[in-house]
Specification:
The protein is mostly beta strands. The chain is built from 1 helix and 11 strands.
Length: 121
């Protein structure tokens, strides 16, 4: 559930995770031009395969259950309240260790300049 106005919003991530069970992206922050946030959920053993991200740094914030985020071959436990930072250019993957694993990813919207006055290519 999302509550708020154009000036700000609150989102009940844990409640949304329970209500919208499923694989993959459960919710996406649609408003705004600069920030991207996605609530992602997986059943036990499921996740996102290893891939490279050369565009943006990404924060993973545990919302429910437990799982792992692998960054350049190093495993990090992700659980509610724990954050994992993944710099751009790293190989990364995620995997659920429990039946109700969900996390929030937050990053700059792709294709946006990191610094004012610079143009995107």
């Amino acid at each position: 559930m999302t509550v708020g106005s154009a000036a700000g919003r609150t989102v009940d991530l844990a409640g949304m995770t329970l209500a919208e069970r499923g694989l993959g992206v459960v919710w996406t922050q649609e408003e705004g031009e600069d920030l991207n946030a996605n609530l992602v959920g997986f059943e036990a053993g499921e996740g996102v395969g290893i891939h490279a991200n050369d565009e943006v740094d990404v924060l993973f914030l545990g919302v429910s259950g437990t799982g792992t985020v692998v960054v350049n071959g190093e495993k990090f436990v992700l659980e509610p309240g724990r954050m994992v930072y993944v710099p751009n250019g790293c190989l990364r993957a995620s995997r659920s260790g429990s039946g109700e694993f969900a996390y929030l990813t937050v990053h700059r919207r792709r294709g946006r300049c990191a610094s004012p006055g610079l143009k995107s290519l």
